[in-house]
Amino acid sequence: MDEHSDGQTCRIQAAVLRKKGGPLKIESVEMEEPRDDEVLVRVVASGICRTDIDFCDDWDKADGAVVLGHEGAGVVERAGKKVKGVKPGDHVVLSYQSCGLCRQCRSGRPAHCTRLDELNFGFQRPDGSNGLQRSGVRGHFFGQSSFATYSLATERNLVKVSKHLPLELLAPLGCGVQTGAGTVMNSLNVSREESIAVFGTGAVGLAAVMASHLVKADPIIGVDIKPKRLKLALKLGATHAIDNRHQDVAGRIADITGKGVDYVVETTGSPEMHQLAISVLNPHGVVALLTGEEGTDALPEGRRTLGIIQGDAVPQHFIPKLIKLYLAGKFPFDRLVKFYKFKDINRAVADSKRGDTIKPVLRMSKA
Ligand SMILES: [Zn+2]
Ligand SMILES: [Zn+2]
């Protein structure tokens, strides 16, 4: 074990970002011991999500040195004395952070938490402090900063899972997979025989395709520029695939459905794809924007765009549900995953950016 604890702090290895575009450098960092309401998690694995990569590319000097990572999975090492739900040795999946106190959180909608931005992107605890400050580094990204050998989480953003499951595989459930599946199953509540197009068949888009197949949507149209990803989309439940470098997407959708589609899940973030999504929508149809953009109602015939966060999922309910579906063979998200050693984090990021790897997962330690 590489950890040394003096009672107040422990030494961990963390991938630190100090420069726009990276690289992420694995450094020895001093981390505070868990507070009464915190849980110290030994990270077994962490997925790499688009948001990590975007943050890296948009990094600004004012951000300072930070530790990213928000799809952690691991084993509880120590728990503060106010923590009731988990104990040392428990296996957990980490997800996004929410305050638990605002009206949205109390009504079971943590994805709409009024403090969502500061708790997930503020690199601080809810009280503004930072457990990595002694090393001049900022943590607590999504309440976890999981590109590290250890993570400080809270009960709000962890989900206890069975010890019989492959923990390293479950890591991406905490953000990307939950977001794609939750958008279809929770936010849009897509029903049998409704038509859906998924723009961008990366990890989030493919999770949306699998969920669409699960709820028996028809047709399910995958749109991407990578033939390899479109091939996988067809295997995971898409009924049609459109390569938008070589094909006219609107024309093809009209051919397939005879009109437009009831839903578009837009994951690409490109303004052209956003406009295209609106243009192929049936009356009363919805475009789900998984790109951080706000939605709008100001479209003709009841069409809408909807900005969606984390698929409106309550992680403690939705992640166990996805695990059950996976075990029943109905949600094979393992087909998106490729594993890397922690030290190869920059290669994993590069592979993901090129689109060669759909969901890179870093292994930090053995379960
Ligand atoms: Zn809240
Ligand atoms: Zn994410």
Summarize the structure.
With 367 residues, this protein is of the alpha/beta class. The protein is built from eleven helices and 16 strands. α5 (176-187) packs parallel to α6.
If you had to describe this structure to a student in words, what would you say it looks like?
There is one protein chain. Helices cover 26% and strands 25% of the residues. With 367 residues, the protein is α/β, with parallel strands linked by helices. Strand 9 (196-199), helix 6 and strand 10 form a beta-alpha-beta unit. The protein contains eleven helices and 16 strands. Helix 5 (176-187) packs parallel to helix 6. The model has no long low-confidence stretch (mean pLDDT 96). Strands 3, 5, 6, 7, 8, 15 and 16 form a seven-stranded mixed β-sheet that branches. Strands 11-10-9-12-13-14 form a six-stranded parallel β-sheet, sandwiched between helices. A three-stranded antiparallel β-sheet has the order 2-1-4, with no helix packed on it. The protein has helices at 50-58, 103-106, 116-121, 167-170, 176-187, 203-214, 227-235, 249-257, 271-279, 315-327, 345-354, and strands spanning 9-17, 24-32, 38-47, 66-67, 72-79, 91-94, 150-154, 158-161, 196-199, 220-224, 240-243, 261-266, 281-289, 304-307, 337-341, 359-363. One zinc ion binds at residues 49, 51, 70, 175-176.
